[in-house]
Amino acid sequence: MSAQTTLPFEEPVVELETKLKELEAFSQEQDIDVSHEIQNMKKKIEETRNGIYANLSAWQKVQVARHPNRPYTMDYINTITTDFVEIHGDRIHRDDRAIVGGFAMIDGRKVMIMGSQKGRDTKSNVECNFGCAHPEGYRKALRLMKLADKFNTPIITLIDTKGAYAGLESEERHIAEAIAVNLRECFNIKVPIICVIIGEGGSGGALGIGIGNRILILEHAYYSVISPEGCAAILWKDRAYSDQAAEALKITGRDLIKLKLADEIISEPKGGAHTDHEAAADNVKAAILKNLDELSAMSPEEILQDRYGKFRAMGEFDGSVE
Hints:
This protein is an alpha/beta fold. The chain is 48% helix and 15% strand. The chain has helices at 11-30, 35-54, 58-65, 73-80, 122-127, 135-150, 168-172, 175-186, 203-207, 228-235, 242-249, 253-258, 277-296, 300-312, and strands spanning 82-86, 99-106, 109-116, 155-161, 193-202, 214-218, 222-224, 264-266. Strands 1, 2, 3, 4, 5, 6, 7 and 8 form an eight-stranded mixed β-sheet that branches. Helix 1 (11-30) packs antiparallel against helix 2, helix 3 (58-65) crosses helix 11 (242-249) and helix 4 packs across helix 13 (277-296).
């Protein structure tokens, strides 16, 4: 795990924690009992942290979703599954490490679990291209989905990417076509698909593994057609307006539930998933199992119709003529 990172809006908590350390050091040096004051300080820190995280703006949630200590796909896989067997490659070009996946067990239930993978340091980030998949990454994901369909195994996708890689080699290998094929073919998969947005859900890069019967999103994750910075650069010609763009894009869990683009918000530990990986994983696991139970009662035909109907119902249209 990388060194502790403090987000700008967390400064009040950091200041209180610094004062707490000074108070504890003073107590030891002077041999004075200030346990009551220490407990009050700890309580104040907890209340301040809870107050901040209960009222985060859309832009602040984006910052939390990008926190370098936030758990990534492999962190969740290692915590909530057993007997994980990773499957590599798309059988056409190469193995794209920006998307990982394979068969695993969750509480005795066999699943196909896959997702976007970021790195913790320069070496691992270069290896997985900062979580931005090439075409072969999406083709690998589709290969895994079809394999799961063949063996009647539910599919879990964990989404955490700024978007698909838009470099020259990605375009040469037809990134748009790879994502488009995934969108089409996911509507033909007859097993349940549960998509969980665990961090960043950016553009077509997220949607390439984001067609499911259930769309779940962590409390401080976001899901958007474009990054706030990209939106600000287009509309205002200045990335300094990213906070306004984040509000306008309606990218948080609450917004997505209202717009019927997501089905459920998964709670995070106080202070964000980066503060307690195990607690975050427990919440994700519980949500996955609950939705798996609901979907497992449906027939393959009902699974297909449920997924198709879900996406056909998205969006509102006003056909009135003034």
